[in-house]
Specification:
heterodimer, A: Dna Ligase, domain 1, D-amino Acid Aminotransferase, Chain A, domain 1, Rossmann fold, six-stranded antiparallel sheet, 13 helices, elongated, B: alpha/beta, 14 strands, 41% helix, globular
Chain lengths: 405, 328
């Protein structure tokens, strides 16, 4: 689960991680209070930051929410020094409008929350990231002196500028490894000491929050040699949310596709894509393979949809509704491999769902496995315009015909 | 003709009294698996189906039954602990079916098992979030439908559940049997990777060919491919699901995600090809590709004059093919 910057920083602060602090607000009415509170803390310079689940905000462009061609302002993050009036005017241009960055796609994302933070004077930008190294099945901390730029780019162009240390789970982050990172970043004196504290707190946060990614980019050395997280990206392992109820509540469904949110309410694993052939499959691997099959058959997959192990009448019906709410869908492929789940039961579900919903597009139904012969018979005798298929090859053929028709 | 499990394997079920555990225990017994005990803390002393003893701990279950394998159905929040318990108690093959285990817990369990292995104990841990392992007609440890399998000489390794059933079904319908099928699971941290399973099948005399079913995310397929290029003479057939998957999105399995441009199907397929693996583009052609590879292998053996030495293993499945054709 992805978090906004302000949410990530609020969590990190609890672990003693020094962050560039501020207030998040979703209405301009709260702007003055936010600034006044920061001033009380002795802060005199301000930054206004758009909060969306995508990177590249600083270099993004804000478009009018009512007119997608009108540029309102350039840049989704701005430093204002002590110009509070300017900051407020800029904030008013962000809220409600659309931010387009290289990560959002051309449709962009609506800015619903802004983050008013302290402005910092710093001498250097660094990079720090913690994530799972799948090859080693251990967490890895990556640090680089090349802060503020995309780490993928650094990894590609100057891989020797990335320092990596792997964490043995039975030992934790040992002192010498923290020092290895600090020396690797060329730190000394108070900055070095502060970094050791910082990295230990950050790693503890990573572990205890069940994060799957923490990225601090940039991590800055302030003019008084403090180590501070200027930005923070935190992703939480979805499988762990059962033990982090407070974090689960931070989920911002506005950042997700409305169809996907709807699907997750019916326990369906749905991902919207841009194609013309919808599909409904049991099991994630078979679902991906079915998408590939659609492409080979001359179509483009309109979605990924895993209905899970049971494929009951109710889930199938919900699946149909979600697939059909995408107007681009010209045909549907249902591919169920019945192992423990019986095909005749699935067929019953498909028939019932097809009767309940007015389906206007051709539906190719391929049920294989336990009781597939009975299932085929039920589909044939249903009187519905379902197109039964036996093998995967047969299903592909029939999808091709359905799109051509 | 199998790896890891066979008709002699004594199996315990951790979480035998839960709904998943009890349902699949019945299915495993029906298939012929020697389920000798169950473990549910707090229910020790009772019996499952009036015959299978339930113990409070894996240690007690082993002491009483000499079981060497365990299958885990306990809920996600306790599953990693169950893996560690089984490993500490001396179980040799641990299969974890449970889905949705937090990665932090799995990192601990994985590295603990690794430490035990380094100290000389032999533990093979499979999963989690997987269908399990089956040696057809001998032993089924997991949730796969037993009837689609057929005994034979192809080793199957897969990250997926239903896609494996699909591939196995294609093989069986072509009269091609399987030595053992392992579902290694779709999570980012798993006990047995492609490379581990490939090593085992490579050493198994009765495995004639290896089928690898991978998917987007990570680099485990590539790791195995490089090993195969160096060490494996048997034909290896590979399929990668997710060529049409968009980057940055988790496709159901926690491990199936293309991140930072890494883990794409194209990259995997191209590496596998370079390493001499026969790659299949359409999931509909998996069975046929294995069939072609096996025929080619038999032909090349004739031409090299090496058939007599392996004639038993080589002919058996062919005979069965003819039989199955006749029966149709």
């Amino acid at each position: 689960m992805k978090l906004h910057e302000y949410q990530a920083k609020s969590l990190l602060k609890k672990f003693g991680v020094t962050v560039q602090d501020g207030h998040a607000l979703n209405d301009l009415r709260y702007f003055d209070d936010a600034v006044n509170d920061l001033m009380k803390r002795g802060i005199s310079e301000f930054v206004v930051k758009s909060q969306i689940h995508a990177g590249g905000r600083g270099k993004g462009v804000i478009y009018n929410q009512h007119n997608p061609n009108e540029i309102v302002v350039e840049g989704g993050v701005k430093y204002f020094g002590s110009d509070v009036k300017g900051a407020k005017e800029y904030a008013s241009k962000l809220l409600g409008n659309i931010l387009v960055t290289h990560q959002t796609g051309p449709e962009g994302k609506q800015v619903r929350t802004i983050y008013v933070t302290e402005g910092l004077n710093y001498k250097k930008e660094l990079y720090l990231g913690i994530l799972l190294d799948r090859e080693k099945s251990k967490n890895v901390i990556m640090a680089s002196t090349e802060g503020g730029v995309e780490i993928e780019k650094v990894a590609e162009e100057t891989p020797d500028k990335i320092i990596k240390v792997w964490i043995d789970p039975e030992v934790g982050l040992s002192g010498y490894k923290s020092r290895e990172l600090g020396y690797g970043l060329g730190l000394e004196g108070n900055a070095f000491k502060d970094f050791i504290k910082f990295i230990n707190n950050l790693y503890r946060a990573y572990e205890e929050l069940d994060a799957s990614l923490i990225e601090v980019n940039p991590l800055v050395i302030s003019s008084d040699d403090k180590i501070i997280a200027l930005d923070a990206k935190v992703t939480i392992d979805d499988n762990s949310l059962f033990r982090h109820k407070d974090i689960a509540e931070m989920r911002d469904t506005n950042e997700e596709d409305p169809l996907e949110v709807e699907a997750s309410k019916s326990n369906l694993n749905y991902i919207k894509l841009d194609g013309n052939v919808g599909c409904m499959v049991n099991g994630a691997g078979l679902a991906m393979a079915s998408m590939d099959l659609i492409k080979l058959a001359g179509g483009e997959p309109a979605n990924f949809l895993d209905v899970g192990g049971t494929a009951s009448a109710e889930t199938v019906e919900n699946g149909f509704r979600i697939i059909l709410s995408d107007p681009n869908v010209k045909a549907i492929l249902i591919n169920i491999f019945g192992g423990i789940v019986r095909c005749d039961r699935v067929a019953q579900g498909v028939i019932q769902a097809a009767k309940n919903i007015n389906i206007q597009v051709p539906v190719v139904v391929r049920l294989q496995g336990t009781n597939s012969v009975e299932a085929r018979k039920m589909l044939d005798e249903s009187g519905l315009k379902l197109i039964p298929a036996d093998t995967l090859q047969d299903a592909a053929q029939k999808v091709t015909e359905a799109i051509a028709a | 003709m199998s790896i890891l499990v066979n008709k002699k394997t004594k199996v315990i079920v951790q979480g035998i009294t839960g709904s998943e555990g009890s349902f699949h225990t019945k299915q495993m017994i029906e298939y012929g698996t020697k389920v000798v005990a169950g473990v549910t803390p707090g229910k020790g002393g009772t019996k499952f189906l009036d015959k299978i003893p339930i113990f409070n701990s894996v240690k007690e279950a082993i002491a009483e039954t000499k079981a060497t394998a365990s299958v885990i159905f306990v809920p996600a929040s306790f599953a990693a602990d169950a893996i560690i318990e089984a490993a500490d108690a001396g179980i040799k093959v641990i299969v974890c079916i449970t889905e949705g285990i937090p990665t932090r817990d799995m990192i601990k369990a994985y590295n603990h098992v690794k430490t035990l292995n380094a100290s000389g104990q032999e533990v093979r841990f499979i999963g989690p979030n997987c269908p399990g392992i089956i040696t057809p007609n001998e032993c089924k440890i997991g949730i796969m439908p037993g009837f689609i399998h057929r005994s034979g000489n192809v080793g199957v390794i897969s990250r997926s559940g239903t896609l494996t059933y699909e591939a196995v079904d294609q093989l069986t319908k072509l009269g091609i049997g399987q030595s053992t099928c392992i579902g290694i699971g779709g999570d980012p941290v798993i006990g047995t990777r492609f490379i581990d399973a490939v090593k085992l099948f490579n050493e198994d005399e009765d495995t004639e060919a290896i089928l690898m079913i991978g998917e987007i995310g990570g680099s485990a397929e590539e790791e195995a491919a490089y090993y195969i290029k160096k060490n494996v003479k048997k034909p290896v057939i590979g399929f990668i699901a997710g060529r049409t998957a968009p980057p940055g999105r988790r496709m159901g399995h926690a491990g199936a995600i293309i991140s930072g441009g890494k883990g794409t199907a194209e990259a995997k397929i191209s590496t596998m090809k370079k390493c001499g693996i026969i790659t299949v583009l359409s999931p509909a052609d998996i069975g046929k590709a294995v069939q072609t590879a096996l025929k080619k292998k038999i032909r090349s053996r004739w031409s090299l004059g090496t058939l007599p030495e392996k004639s038993k293993a080589g002919r058996k499945p062919k005979k069965k093919t003819e039989e199955s054709r006749k029966s149709k």
